[in-house]
Amino acid sequence: MENNINSSYIKFWGVRGSNPTPDKDKMYYGGDTSCIEIRTKNNNLIILDMGSGIRNLGKKIISDKSYNNEINIILSHYHWDHIMGFFYFAPLYNEKYTINIYGYNKNTSINDLSNHLINKEFWPVENSMYKANINFFEMEESSSELKSMDINDTKICYSSHPHPGGANSIRVTCDDKKIVYVTDCEHTDGNLNQSVLNIAKECDILIHDSHYTVGDLPGYKGWGHSSWKQSTDIAIVSRIKKLVLFHYSPDYSDEKIKEIEANAQKKFINTLASNQELLIEL
Ligand SMILES: [Zn+2]
Ligand SMILES: [Zn+2]
């Protein structure tokens, strides 16, 4: 890797759940769907999910010469809000980039996913128009046990958690800091999921699905999401350092999310509600 950067960081490019929300009352937290950039001091670029937020990240990568030409994307799962940004990711159309996309789903192979994505019936791009070197990698089968892999010098661990069709919690160890990403997670019958507690244990930063308020959650059983309160419960039980709320209901306004953040801080003081463009230096 070339071009070491001054300090590693996490940047949030999309924090909205389910669908983009370009609504006036949702501009502060933002309307783009799941996409998080993690960049290590050694300039290793790891992107978690490619929701619509990846569109602006792609423009940044193209215009900022400090980025390397290798881009690594890990998918939590293959629901639309986590993959829809693929088509608008500018580096795909530039031959200078190598783009590695990693994922595992028990029902759909990563090859099947790539065939859907690169099907010009659904999006008018011929295969030959994708200029980057694009590789899809099937991760080893995920389960409640922790699996691990390395991307360059960055250690990645993952395990599965409950969501319709399944999804993976992902832990990235970035310059000795442990960042854990748990989105689209339904803690069954109100019990905190044990594999989430395990992967989050004593991490530095936990980014957790906070789709619903406590009052709204019971009305959406089986929809695959958590309340902000379950995020703070995981934070307390797993003794993490900093909690970042993520993947808000597309129905929630900025005002409502501010209220959620204040309530969450009463339970776990070191809580922050992520907004689009939030930058956390590590
Ligand atoms: Zn989602
Ligand atoms: Zn989902």
Secondary structure elements and pairings:
Layout: E1 9-14, E2 35-39, E3 45-48, H1 54-63, E4 70-74, H2 80-83, E5 98-103, H3 110-117, E6 133-138, E7 147-151, E8 154-161, E9 167-174, E10 177-182, H4 194-200, E11 205-209, H5 228-237, E12 242-246, H6 254-267, E13 271-273, E14 279-281
Parallel strand pairs: 3-4, 4-5, 5-6, 10-11, 11-12, 12-13
Antiparallel strand pairs: 1-2, 1-14, 2-3, 7-8, 8-9, 9-10
Bound molecules: zinc ion (2 copies).
Number of strands: 14
Major beta-sheet overview: 7 strands, mixed
Helix percent reads 10-25%
Secondary-structure element string? EEEHEHEHEEEEEHEHEHEE
The CATH H-level homologous superfamily: Ribonuclease Z/Hydroxyacylglutathione hydrolase-like
Radius of gyration: 18 Å
CATH topology name, in short, is Metallo-beta-lactamase, Chain A
Q: What ligand species are in this complex?
A: zinc ion
Low-confidence stretches: none
Structural domains: how many = 1
Please state roughly what percent of the residues sit in beta strands, choosing from under 5%, 5-15%, 15-25%, 25-35%, 35-45% or over 45%. 25-35%
Output the structural class.
alpha/beta
Span between termini:
19 Å
The coarse overall form would be: globular
Determine the mean pLDDT: 96
Q: What is the CATH C level class, in words?
A: Alpha Beta
Strand order of the largest sheet: 6-5-4-3-2-1-14
Helical run tally: 6
Assembly type of the chains comes to single chain
